[in-house]
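Researcher: I'd like a structural prediction for the single chain below. Treat it as a standalone chain; there are no partners to consider.
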Amino acid sequence: MNLFFFKLALIVYTIATVGFFVYLYTLKQEASKGAFYTLSLGFFFHSLSIALRWWEAGHPPLTNLFEATSFLSWGLVLGYIIIDRKFSQAKTLGAFVTPLATFLMIYSSFCPKEILPLPPVLRSLWLPIHAAISLVSYGFFILAAASGVMYLIQERQIKRKRLGGWFKRLPSLEVLDRINELSLKIGFPLLTVGIITGAVWAEKAWGSYWSWDPKETWSLIMWLIYAALLHERLAVGWRGRKAAWLSLVGFVAWIISFFVVNLYIPGAHTYVEWHG
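Model: Treating it as a single chain, here is the predicted structure.
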């Protein structure tokens, strides 16, 4: 049953993506509202899918690539809904975010979906705490990157004095910078908690808080990048272009961490090892 609602959520996310593209082209408020409500419906189906899989498996659905990628998409949509409610001027952000959420769902749909018994090391209350918090933090970092891309596009339009097309469709530079900052202010503490809870879990499982596992190392690299960005924002007053570019650097580090390290570099976090 969980897969039925997963597929239903994917279909609805796809429809919402089309709706946001229609809004991006027409700038009609009806299209924006319709796309947002459709996305919210998809989020409901997605949440139901995750809850049912948890019930069917008897453990949090965060232990293989299908579950992790699906939950990441869920966290990204959750983050977008929060940002949308906070910034009414940022409706076109949906046209950048919903395709990513849909892509993650499509990618997830091609992964093995079998529910298998948990290895002993994963039978811990730290699993839902550490994994869920970390994945939601990734969703906010994707939002920071998306707003960064939009900022760079808008800035380029202004510098070239092309005040039509994209300029009319994208939020102001100030709004995009504020979205970027808020995404970082939410995502960074979550990542910090995720790393700390992971260290506590590792100590209980393997007797060591830190072992320089490839995933741990890349999580630390990500943490340092976003810590530097947040520090420069809060202490030095970085705004705009520099912050947008560093958000993209962090996004690249996240891609390596999630799609390369998790899959191809042997370690305690390698998904193939968990169920291979």
